[in-house]
Write a structure and sequence with these properties.
Layout lengths: L2 E3 L3 H10 L3 E3 L11 E3 L1 H19 L4 E3 L8 H7 L1 H4 L4 E3 L6 E3 L28 E4 L9 E4 L4 H5 L2 H7 L6 E10 L14 E11 L4 H18 L7 E5 L10 E9 L2 E12 L1 H10 L5 E3 L5 E3 L2 E8 H12 E4 L7 E4 L10 E5 L4 H14 L5 E3 L5 H10 L4 E5 L1 H6 L1 E6 L5 E5 L3 H9 L2
Parallel strand pairs: 4-9, 19-20, 19-21
Antiparallel strand pairs: 1-17, 2-3, 5-6, 7-8, 9-10, 10-16, 11-12, 12-13, 13-16, 14-15, 17-18, 21-22, 22-23
Helix pairs in contact: 2-9, 3-8
Adenosine-5'-triphosphate binds next to strand 10, strand 13, strand 16 and helix 9.
Length: 439
């Protein structure tokens, strides 16, 4: 059997739209640039990803979760450096008005959109933060920003969490939430958008131990991507080496081989005490940690950050899962080979015919299964067509109810990957699925 994996991002874009994973935002109005809506299957997949991250990161002794607000005091962004420094140099093509990041193109080459030569403006700074105003009066005092990263909500709550949860170093604070960046060159579907979701953790450590923390978290984070099903040969490390942000003392990215090439999916950065010291300075508050294990010594911890884009990881998961078996042949089938814990639909329940006794039996099984699993009830078309449709959305198991079911109280369970079918007693079905899924 020959298999084909994804070659072109458009294969994922079109499956996403036709099968209800991701739609263009405001589509009936012609769409809004680089904004996307998750449909019924997309939101399930995304929630499953967030759930797998949350459990991996916070169901442990040394990490707590929070959910900070998107709008924060404007001083936060002064302190973090985003007001003054969060900008990408950009150039415009004077011929076609396309805008590019100056660091991403060859400024001496012709414009890649309209092919005009020497048409670029001088690079200009462009702040990536979205501004809005708070309250009824719009003046400079009311300006607030949509957060461009979730991390700052963690730094500002560092002592709240440490004290209320009685944490000792090293410990981490994790959160999942929306971030907004007015990206100059968004695109490649959900790879780079202006509104996206981040899953970030800041791990607070005693200064001097940050490299041990780096080693530990590099391993944990890489393994998470493998556990979610990404192929090892499509993952690699990028070491920032000496090209570091001014506040960092080491930085690594986990890159994935997308159809558009290798690119960053997660950053693991050692940020020193830069953020806490800036917030201490700007807020006038003492943010020191009191180390009771070391003679009540007071100091600002160092921070090791792990930051992964939920949407970008989801895109990698979709690209990695996409498989065309026997391409071009009669037996061709498209299968989304999601790991079962990520699959949007866990079980499809299918009465063989629309006849009432079969539907009654099927609905009873559905009612039982969906107490635990997201299921789909599918009665449209031939069984073969229904299997193909479930393959395309990555449903691990299909349960078929036929006339024999009414006699022997058993159903046929079909496995997505092997396509094998087994006859299982209805009373055994829950246990059978529990053993298969492991949850
Ligand atoms: P890039 O170089 O791609 O702009 P970055 O280095 O600015 O990314 P970070 O600030 O380190 O990214 O953000 C951490 C993670 O958040 C990234 O690895 C990525 O997965 C995600 N991310 C950042 N910007 C976007 C965006 N515009 N759209 C979707 N995800 C994003």
């Amino acid at each position: 059997m020959s298999n084909k994996s994804v070659e072109d991002m458009n294969e994922i874009v079109s499956l996403s739209k036709s099968r209800g994973f991701i739609f263009q935002s405001s589509e009936i109005y012609g769409g809004l640039g680089s904004c996307w809506d998750y449909g019924p299957l997309g939101v399930e997949l995304k929630n499953n990803i967030k759930d797998s991250w949350w459990k991996a990161m916070t169901y442990r002794e040394d990490v707590e979760g929070i959910d900070a607000s998107i709008l924060m005091h404007p001083q936060v962004w002064k302190a973090s450096g985003h007001v003054d420094g969060f900008s990408d140099p950009m150039v415009d093509c004077k011929e076609c008005n396309s805008r590019f990041r100056a660091d991403k193109i060859d400024l001496n080459a012709p414009c890649e959109k309209c092919k005009a030569k020497d048409s670029f403006t001088e690079p200009r700074e462009f702040n990536l933060m979205f501004e809005t105003s708070m309250g009824p009066v719009k003046d400079s005092a009311s300006v607030v920003y949509l957060r461009p990263e979730t991390a700052q909500g963690i730094f500002t709550n560092f002592l709240n969490v440490q004290k209320t949860m009685r944490k000792k170093l090293p410990f981490g604070i994790a959160q999942i939430g929306k971030a907004f960046r007015n990206e100059i060159t968004p695109g490649n579907f959900i790879f780079r958008t202006r509104e996206f979701e981040q899953m970030e953790m800041q791990y607070f450590v005693t200064p001097g131990t940050q490299m041990d923390a780096m080693e530990k978290w590099k391993e944990i984070r890489f393994q998470w991507h493998l556990d979610n099903g990404l192929d090892a040969d499509k993952l690699r490390w990028h070491d920032h080496g000496t090209e570091l942000a001014h506040y960092a003392d080491a930085a690594f990215d986990i890159e994935y081989k997308f159809p558009i090439g290798w690119d960053e999916m997660e950053g693991i950065h050692s940020r020193t005490d830069f953020d806490l010291s800036r917030h201490a300075e700007h807020s006038g508050k003492n943010l020191n940690y009191v180390d009771v294990q070391d003679g009540n010594k007071k100091y600002l911890p160092y921070v090791l950050e792990t930051s992964v884009g939920c949407d970008r990881h989801l895109l990698a998961i979709m690209c990695n899962a996409y498989t065309v078996e026997n391409p071009g042949e009669k037996e061709e089938r498209v299968v989304m080979k999601f790991k079962p814990h990520l699959a949007p639909i866990k079980v499809a329940v299918m009465p063989l015919m629309k006849k009432e006794p079969l539907q009654d039996a099927a609905r009873l099984i559905l009612a039982n299964l969906q107490k635990k699993y997201k299921c789909e009830y599918d009665i449209a078309g031939s069984i073969g067509k229904r299997y193909r449709r479930q393959d395309e959305i990555g449903t691990p198991y299909c349960v078929t109810i036929d006339y024999d079911t009414l006699e022997d109280n058993a159903v046929t369970v079909r496995d997505r990957d092997s396509m094998t079918q087994e006859r299982i007693a209805i009373t055994e079905l829950q246990t059978y699925l529990l053993n298969k899924f492991g949850f």
